[in-house]
Amino acid sequence: MSSQPSVFQPSVSIVVPVRNEADNIVPLIEEIGAALDGRWAYEIIYVNDGSTDATGERLGAVMKQRDNLRQLRHARSGGQSAAVRSGVRAARGAIVATLDGDGQNNPDFLPDLISAVENGSKVGLAAGQRVGRKDTGFKKFQSRVANGVRNAILKDGTRDTGCGLKAFRREVFLMMPYFDGLHRFLPALVRREGYEIAYVDVIDRPRRSGVSNYGFFDRLWIGIMDLVGVWWLIRRKKPTPDVTEVTA
């Protein structure tokens, strides 16, 4: 296990939104460490989104052993987008990577995502694209429908925006207009700002324990209004002027 100084400047921040994932805390943190130790100076930020189980206590115990682990807590649940945003705003790294806290996202893919952003001067986002998904048939059907509708309207070229494995430049994320569901529209909004998207195939795996705490798109029907809003934002985008300061 890596030993980090109590105050340091990481180059990478890993943000993990969780709600009631107590039994998944320790195994996932160990996997993140195994994937990243010795490769980057990094921090792990768990955003405890109003958990009512022992999630906070489990995180507190690991924090005594890992001084690169931070915990943010929402007094009550604000949803996955709010949790991701809280983590990114608190992040110290210039590159932020996210993954879900239920163990379905394999941290072994984090280095590929981070490297795609780090090595691509015009890449604003590296998005995981799931293959061999371990969800129910109905959930996979919902995903295909939602992704098909979104891609037909936004033409963002992304087959799977629901994958929690992503890496992006923190400054680019903070340019985005915030709304509930933002994390599912990142490819379209990043392209809107003039950046490129890198795609990394990732292998999904079954949840270790517990049940899903965040809904898909909060399902499609709620996402329709967001979809219309993002389409409007893209249509209204004007070229960003090149600005230089004139000095005497």
Q: Explain this structure to me?
A:
By secondary structure, this protein is α/β, with parallel strands linked by helices. It contains 8 helices and 7 strands, in the order βαβαβαβαβαβααβα. It has helices spanning 25-36, 55-63, 80-90, 110-119, 137-154, 170-173, 186-192, 220-236; strands at 12-18, 42-49, 69-74, 95-98, 123-131, 166-169, 196-203. A 7-stranded mixed β-sheet has the order 3-2-1-4-6-5-7, with helices on both faces. Helix 1 links the parallel strand 1 and strand 2. Helix 5 (137-154) runs parallel beside helix 8 (220-236). The longest helix is centred in the middle third of the chain and has 18 residues, at 137-154. The radius of gyration is 18 Å and the shape is globular. 39% of the residues are buried. The model has no long low-confidence stretch (mean pLDDT 85).
Q: Can you describe this structure in just a few lines?
A:
The protein is an alpha/beta fold. Helix content is 35%, strand content 19%.
Sequence-ordered SSE layout with sheet pairings:
Layout lengths: L11 E7 L6 H12 L5 E8 L5 H9 L5 E6 L5 H11 L4 E4 L11 H10 L3 E9 L5 H18 L11 E4 H4 L12 H7 L3 E8 L16 H17 L12
Parallel strand pairs: 1-2, 1-4, 2-3, 5-7
Antiparallel strand pairs: 4-6, 5-6
Determine the structural class based on helices, strands and strand pairing: alpha/beta
- Strand tally: 7
Q: Estimate the mean pLDDT confidence.
A: 85
Rg, Å, rounded: 18 Å
Protein name: Dolichol-phosphate mannosyltransferase
GO molecular function: glycosyltransferase activity
Organism: Bradyrhizobium canariense
Pfam families: Glycos_transf_2
